Amino acid sequence: MTNIDISKYKLVESDDVFTFKNENTTLGFVRFNAKAEVEYIFVNPIFRKQGLAKKLLKLVKEKTVKDIILQEPISPLGSKLLNSLNKWR
Predict the structure, then answer these.
(1) Which of 12, 37, 84, 85 has a Cα-to-Cα distance from 69 of 20 to 30 A?
(2) Crossing angle of helices 76-88/52-64, nearest 10°?
(3) Is 77 left (phi over 0), alpha (psi -120 to 50) or beta?
(4) In a domain, 1, yes or no
(5) 45 lies in which domain range?
């Protein structure tokens, strides 16, 4: 796994959504609420396995100042991310 350099991409924040973009595509985004419940997280398949989901979740944690909760249903990839997140806390 390589770590993506997010400084090369535009971070857009609007109404409890963080989105990383470049001029061609959306790399990934996360939608959350004030309780730090992640309602949806997506990473473009081209940019997966580079730490982008963790960076998005870190932004949510910094903004809400709460422990992150992933809402059901959780996909197999989401379950893997949740396990990784639990180790991160």
Answers:
(1) 12
(2) 60
(3) alpha
(4) no
(5) 6-88
d(CA 13, CA 19): 6
pLDDT in single tens digits along all 89 residues of the chain: 567 887 889 999 998 999 999 989 999 999 999 999 999 999 999 999 999 999 999 999 999 999 888 887 667 777 777 677 666 55
**Prediction pTM value:** 0.79
CATH number at residue 56: 3.40.630.30
Question: Among residues 80, 38, 44, which one has the least CA distance to residue 59?
Answer: 38
Q: Please count the structural domains in the chain.
A: 1
